Every structure is written in C-alpha cells, then in structure tokens.
Amino acid sequence: MAGAVEARLAELGLTLPGVVPPLATYQPAVQSGVYVYTSGQLPMVEGKLPVTGKVGAEVTPDEAKELSRTCALNALAAVKSVAGDLDRIKRVVKVVGFVASAADFTGQPAVINGASELLGEVLGDKGVHARSAVGVVVLPLDAPVEIEIQVELDEA
Questions:
Q1: Backbone φ/ψ region at 33: left (φ over 0), alpha (ψ -120 to 50), beta
Q2: How many Å separate Cα 129 from the centre of its chain?
C-alpha cells in the first residue's frame, strides 16, 4: 500500500522508479541516525541516460532542468530503499547539484531548480532545503546533471 508521498507522486503523474544500481563501489543511499544521505543520482530512466553532453552545448538548459527532476525522483527511490517509507521524511535538509557545463554556461541554479521544484511539489514544506549548484567539466557517463540529497527522517 502506497503512502501519502507516493500517492502525491501519482497525482503528479509520476511513478517512483526502482533504485538505480551503483556504477562503482558504493551504496545508493546510507542511513546514519535519523539522516539519509544519497549518493549522486544521475538522470537514469530504465537503466539509460536519455541525453548526454554539456549543458549550454549539446543539452539545453530546459532539457537539463527536466533531467534534474529525474535525478531527484531517483534520489527519492534511493531514500526509500533504506528508510522503507517516504512518509518517514521529516524534511529535505540539503540538495547538491552538479551540472556538466559548457565553458560559458552560468545557469546552474536554474537547472537545479528542477530538482528543488520536484521535491517541493512532492513533499510540500518538508521539501524546502539548503542547496548548492555547481558547474563541473564532466560527470559520469557524460551525464548532464547529477543530484544528491540529504533527508531527515521521523524517528518512528
């Protein structure tokens, strides 16, 4: 039986994906006390990147913003894999977004807004968070965007 968060995802026309398998030696998410830390989540859909390249060159900012939403959805799946239930999320504490950027691209915050907006749409006030948006030269598999999140859980 799906909880309130997954029901909200369904209202938005979204389905929580399976956890993206690690590309190397790490776990998709770990819990320490009441906190869950996700590894960087790529915008994988059914095991593949829908788009590759640099934002501001091969990838438009609007495409990248949509990809950051996918990363956030994948991050929620990673959280659920260790928390058991997304309804345990007390709040999203921090989002860190990486944008593989063309040399002259400076719109990283707008790209990472995709992830921030998704978390707000799904979690309401619990989705409000601190954030960093960083431009980088390249990401794994030539992904345009990577997102990691940190959440606090209810102790229940």
A1: left
A2: 13
Give phi and psi for 20, each to the nearest 5.
-70, 125
Q: Residue 45 carries which DSSP code?
A: B
Q: What are the residues facing 45 on neighbouring strands?
A: 48
Strand ranges of the sheet holding 35-38, from the earlier edge strand across to the other edge: 29-32, 35-38, 145-153, 89-100, 130-136
Residue 15 contacts residue 9 (beta carbons within 8 Å): yes
Q: What confidence tens digit (pLDDT) does each residue in 102-120 have?
A: 999 999 999 999 999 999 9
Q: Which residue has the tokens 């915050």?
A: 109
Q: What is the pTM of this model?
A: 0.96
3-state secondary structure of 40: coil
**112, two tokens:** 């990472």
